[in-house]
Automatic annotation (TrEMBL):
This is Palmitoyltransferase. Residues 91-235 form the Palmitoyltransferase DHHC domain. Belongs to the DHHC palmitoyltransferase family. The DHHC domain is required for palmitoyltransferase activity. Signal peptide: none annotated. It is an enzyme of class 2 (transferase). It comes from Pipistrellus nathusii (Nathusius' pipistrelle). Its EC number is 2.3.1.225.
Amino acid sequence: MAWPEGAHRNNAFLVLHVFLQGMVYTEYTWEILGYCQELDFSLCYLLLPHLLLAVNLVFFTLSCLTDPGTITKANEALLLQVYEFDEVMFPEKRWCSTCDLRKPARSKHCSVCNRCVHRFDHHCVWVNNCIGAWNARYFLIYLLTLTASAATMAIVTTVFLVRLVVMSDLDLYVDDLGHSQDVDTIFLIQRLFLTFPRIVFLLGFVLVLSFLLGGFLCFALFLAATNQTTNEWCRGDGAWCQHCPQAAGTPSAELRAYRNIHSHGLWSNLREIFLPSTAHGDRKKK
Ligand SMILES: [Zn+2]
Ligand SMILES: [Zn+2]
């Protein structure tokens, strides 16, 4: 395994990704772990984000360094046999003039990496690699563990702050008559922010991240379950459905004729992601 070949590749987003992940974990370890241990939180529970990070880093590295399915003269003939041409989105007689190769169905030329990729999904700037047939499984697990680590960090931080509020009576104030009164939520958040600004900021950040990543993960799982790539979904404008012949009056003749011919049921679709066809060819047209 080696860094895939490609011209004009930019590592800026990859470096930013590693930097942000490092910052969040440092902050979590420094601020939350220390306080939580004083509050007798279970260590297994507190270290769950670190365990997820270890798994995440393995799959991040695999997503970065695994060949996504580069089409070459050597494997061109074999990969042409893997998927059926639909003659709508992927016509049979198409060439990539840059690579001087025939284009297998579901492949695409990546202008960033300057190569044609088998079952092209998208070019991910965060891992600085294309996501294709041979690394889609790693990318999916990477996304899953990244979302899980952000979510567990958000849960631990929230539980810590709630316990802290209850223990330190931050949710109460004493009025002019000397009676304890509940403070309202906005005031409580302000109080927490003034007392623990870095922890509240961390919680806000990981909460937003959890929702964004969760949304992206759901989309990626939906595509995997229905055997679509992001490239196909965008080009088909989300119109792929093997059960739905196109509605009459669809403006584009291309869309009208189009339906997903690659989906063969949930388990078959997932098997295709997790046990992809290789350059040695273990899969033929269905
Ligand atoms: Zn090409
Ligand atoms: Zn690429």
